[in-house]
């Protein structure tokens, strides 16, 4: 499946480049070229094409929760009692600006949304639940699940 703007099919070298960049997005073009068996210029051209075709959304640093003292990772299932498009739109707009919510998915099943939330400790998470999450538009029920231990962190997407 191609990205929204993707126009080219991926070959073996494109796939190898994407895998390598997911492991190290700051890899210099020279090192990337060596890893995939190209010279620098064709590698740089391919990289620009992968970016412009929408296969690469962007680059970012992976921060340490421990260093930032964010000891709690919680997953919250959020339910609405009224399923109104305008209410859902307001909820979705408001969560975009809440830094503690690191991901949000509109899901199927008994809940409407699944949020991943970080906090310094359980006290801070409790205050966040009471003062922020439960006051968001449309929210009528929240069920929290606390992560006891992270076994695998986002390691990138599989590249077919």
From TrEMBL:
GO terms for cellular component: cytosol. PROSITE patterns: HTH_ASNC_2. The keyword 4Fe-4S does not apply. SMART domains: HTH_ASNC (SM00344). GO terms for molecular function: sequence-specific DNA binding. GO terms for biological process: regulation of DNA-templated transcription; response to amino acid. Keywords: DNA-binding, Transcription, Transcription regulation. Residues 10-73 form the HTH asnC-type domain. This is Transcriptional regulator AsnC family. It comes from Caballeronia insecticola.
């Amino acid at each position: 499946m191609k990205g929204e703007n993707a126009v080219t099919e991926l070959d073996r070298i494109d796939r190898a480049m994407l895998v390598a960049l997911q492991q190290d997005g700051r890899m210099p073009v020279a090192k990337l070229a060596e890893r995939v068996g190209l010279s620098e210029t064709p590698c740089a051209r391919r990289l620009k094409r992968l970016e412009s075709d929408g296969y690469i959304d962007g680059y970012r640093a992976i921060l340490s929760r421990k260093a930032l003292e964010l000891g709690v990772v919680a997953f919250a299932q959020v339910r609405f009692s009224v399923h109104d498009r305008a209410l859902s739109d307001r909820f979705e707009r408001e969560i975009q600006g809440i830094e503690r919510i690191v991901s949000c998915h509109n899901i199927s099943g008994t809940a409407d949304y699944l949020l991943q939330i970080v906090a310094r400790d359980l006290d801070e998470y409790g205050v966040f639940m009471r003062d922020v999450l439960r006051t968001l538009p449309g929210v009528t029920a929240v069920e929290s699940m606390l992560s006891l231990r992270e076994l695998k962190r986002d390691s990138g997407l599989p590249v077919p």
